[in-house]
């Protein structure tokens, strides 16, 4: 006897259905999940806006972030942080230097090496772009009571842990 399946209208029997949210979308109580999703989307849009203002692509902007946060880096160090080849990193550095966002300098202790440093004017421009969001979030955190701050910090640390755990497990499955 033929097995009968309940199929959605227009569905093809035996077709693979990609996983998705439960029917009807997320539960109404998932305001936090929805807010986190909105923050992620807005963060991506904001990064694109900053990149456009600085006239760089996403990879170049990420390289600038590393240089601004960590200071002088060798091309090899930058390559590892960007998780791209050294050849691709050379192209990134060339673009940043050509746009005036970075400079190459001799390494302080190894004359064979160079380091890439962010140009101060570009650091200033980047912070001008970032300031409204950084300042706005800082102002919001100042409005929190100590108890509220502890709850938010604990929750965000757990969310970060979920992301790190997922990245670690996916990374290990790629290398298995």
Automatic annotation (TrEMBL):
Residues 29-161 form the HTH marR-type domain. GO terms for molecular function: DNA-binding transcription factor activity. Residues 8-17 have a biased composition (Low complexity). It comes from the Bacteria. One of its GO terms (biological process) is response to stress. It holds the Pfam family MarR_2. Residues 1-30 are annotated as: Disordered. This is MarR family transcriptional regulator. It comes from Cryobacterium arcticum.
